[in-house]
Amino acid sequence: MAKEKKMVQGNRRRVTFSIEAASACEVILMGDFNNWNRKKHPMKTDGSGIWSKSVLLDPGEYEYKFLVDGQWWEDPKNDQSCINEFGTKNSVLSIK
Fold it and tell me: In the chain, what are the domains?
């Protein structure tokens, strides 16, 4: 689930993405905000199975997914989604 924080730089907002994946060895946050680049936003675990990553985003609408040990996961705590070009769903985040 993505949680939006107050403005940080200009209109940008600090957004923290998190997902529970207790048995995962690696979780990567990927989306159109980082050109779906697996090297840009690796996530860190808190040791209890919750993975998180904070990023600065401008207002707008963003599609994203989590890459969990090589498998695509939608955000289970976000009911906003859209169909992508592969016929599966991406989670959608709107920042105002």
Answer: 2-95 (2.60.40.10)
